[in-house]
Structure formats: C-alpha cells, structure tokens
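Q: I'm writing a short explainer about UDP-N-acetylmuramoylalanine--D-glutamate ligase for a general audience and would like to include a description of its predicted shape. Could you first generate the structure from this sequence?
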Amino acid sequence: MAERDYIVILGAGESGTGAAILAQKQGFDVFVSDFGPIDSVFKKQLTENGIPFEEKQHTESAILSAKEVIKSPGIPETVPIIKNIKAKGIPVISEIEFAGRYTDAKTICITGSNGKSTTTMLTYHILKNAGLNVGLAGNIGKSFALQVATEQFDWYVLEISSFMLDDMYQFKADIGVLLNITPDHLDRYDYKMEKYVDSKLRILQNQTPGDVFIYCADDSETLKGLERYTIQAKVYPFSIEKELNLGAYLKNNEININLENQSSFIMSITELALQGKHNIYNSMASGIVAKVLELRNESIRESMGNFKNIEHRLEHAGRISGIDFINDSKATNINSTWYALESMTTDVVLILGGVDKGNDYDMLKDLVRSKVKAIVCLGKDNKRIHDAFEDEVEVIVNTFSAAEAVQIAYHLAQKGDTVLLSPACASFDLFRNYEDRGNQFKAAIKEL
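A: Of course. Here's the predicted structure. Afterward I'll give you a sentence or two in plain language.
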C-alpha cells in the first residue's frame, strides 16, 4: 500500500474500539466517530493507541472520504449518516466481518432471538474445560477484533445478533447455530417478520459441505424460513418434541445426541446446571457443538453439570420470608419474558416495563393468566401494559424506581411466591442499560 487506505469506524463502544485497534495494526489510517459521548475506558484505549476520534458529532467530510466504514451494530440503517455513506457507494461492514479477514481461527457462531448469551457462554465453558485454545466474543466478552489483534486463539465462540449479521458478507461460520426466531427488533426490519428471519438465516451464508449448521427442529419460524434456502453445510437439528436419527432429542428426561461415526451422548436433564425447558434447548445446541469437535463425553457431561449462568438472566437474587427473587433484567423482549414465565413453578409477582420495541403482549396472556397474581410496572409509560393485562390480573401498580418496584412486589407476594423481574422491554427510560436495572434490583432486595 503506497498510500494507506482510510477506514472510518462509527461507534466507539467495545466493538468499535476493538475494530479501530485492529485496523491500525493492519496498517490502515483510522478515524473513529461517535454521535454520543465516548466512555472513558474506550477513550483511554483510543488515546493510548494514538487513534484520532470525535464524540457527540459526525463530521461528514471526515467520514465520507473513507474507503470502508465499520459500523457498530447498535446504529440503525436509517440514520442520516449511514444513508449518506451508502449513497456514495462506500461499503458498510460489521466489526465481525472486518476481524474475520485477519484470523485463521475457526468460528462457532450462535444466533437466535433468545438464549444466545447462555448458549454462547455454555459452549465456551465446555470447550475451555476440554482444553481447547478458545476465545469468547461477539455480543459478549471482549471485542472479536481486539482479540484478533492481540491474542492467538484456534477457536472463537461468537454470539452474533441479527444486526451484526446484516453487515456480514464474506464472513463464514465454521459451525453455525440458530436457536430460535421470534418477533424482536421488528422496528429495525420495517415490522416485517420475513426480513428479520432472513437476517437470522444469514448465519448460513458462505457455508460449505465441510461446515456444520445446528438448528431447532421445534421452531416454526426457523422451519418456515429454511424452506427458502439451500443448505450446503452438514445439518444437525435438535428437538424436545420428537426423536431424531441425527442431532439431539429428549427421551425419558434424557438428552440424547447422535452424530455419524461417534459414540452417543446421553445425560439426564436433572444433572444439567441449567434448568427449565428453554435451557434444555440451549444445552442440546452446545452439546452438539461439543460432539462435532469430538470432545470426550465425560468432559462434556462435567461442563454441562457445573456451568454457572450469566448475570441478569434468570439469576437467583435472594430469598426473603420464603419469597424468591429472580433477576431476569436481560429479558428485553416479549419472548424472553415468555421463557422466564414458562419456567416458573410458583405464583409470580411480575415486574414488567421500560422502553417498548413494538411489543405484542398477546403472546404472554395465557401465562400471565395462569401464573401471575400481580404486575408491577417499572417504566415511564406503562399504558400498553395496563391495556394488555387489565383483564388478566387483579393488581397492576406503577413504579418509577427499582427500589419502589421491589418494595411493592415484596408486599404483594406471599411465602412460596416468586418475584420475577423480567421486563420484556429495553431499560433506557430509567436506567443506563439492562445491567444497571438488574444491579439496582439486586441492591433493592438487600435493603428489604
């Protein structure tokens, strides 16, 4: 390169900062632009690496002369700067696409509307315990690009969102996992389910017969979507509703995994560290990945039995006067809340609400009717929750802080009940993010 190619990175969070450091290492001229304020952690990283950046603005002249733009998954296609970049014909890619060019490591890519984080963490846990040299990245952990720049892993387990997939073109998943597809983020897909399904199914792109695709055979949207695609990769489905010759299925409360030319893997679901129906699916998906990599059954069984789940996802946050408190703050969509309610075995006081992404609450009505005795709203605008559930529960209360929500939920609950924070909404109206919401919830429980 006589003249160094110029790359612009939009968004200076975990992924943007990592992409900037990798781009610089690969010999590009780099400029980082963030329309909001940049977190001090990332500012320090950029400054230490001598990477120029701007915050609280986008200087068009500096951006529109780029050869390529790497954009943060959180920036929608519809914002003016992206429209202007595309109008000029400048390619826009994701950090994952960019980092994938500079590593020979094999990738296990996990996507789906729900269960991605849990399945990604579990898969990483199984591989690491089996002694593989493995990194964890994507929507979780340290940025993929930063790890490609600074580490030498043989394998990566990547949690991939549909927003990341939208900006991935040449990238290939050596093992692709699609857990499920349910309506989420439809505001980013013109409220068209088919567009969202196609986005998720980009996990298949560039796969060859030497690659593997793992999916849920019980998920109707996935099955409907796959009818439109020709799959090149070797396919392993998983199901808890029917027995399968190849893949994973449930029989007599045991997970069975069968792949060609390998010993069967069998494990009782009572031994799994992750309990609940949705976690049987997550464990099956991770188990198939482990068997594809020919890990020892004993090692897989041990890892599946001792795994600790991630914070803010159906996390047990305390028990007071016989009332259990569950922190599921990571449930930012209806389907996550559906899963949470579905896994409850007691009466529930449900804490719901926040920034609603076009939620259709009808999906929750049956579960609310059968399991929920009261709803505590935690958000600035709770009208849609009242409208949806006023006929299903006797008590719906508005609150405007985690402390207030916990106090009221505690008084509405009785011994043997569960207070469940599973908001079905984003948190930005009252909190910094879902972690902040979950942490405030946990702090409030300690104050009771």
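A: For your explainer, you could say: The first helix runs from residue 14 to 25.
Q: Perfect, that's easy to follow.
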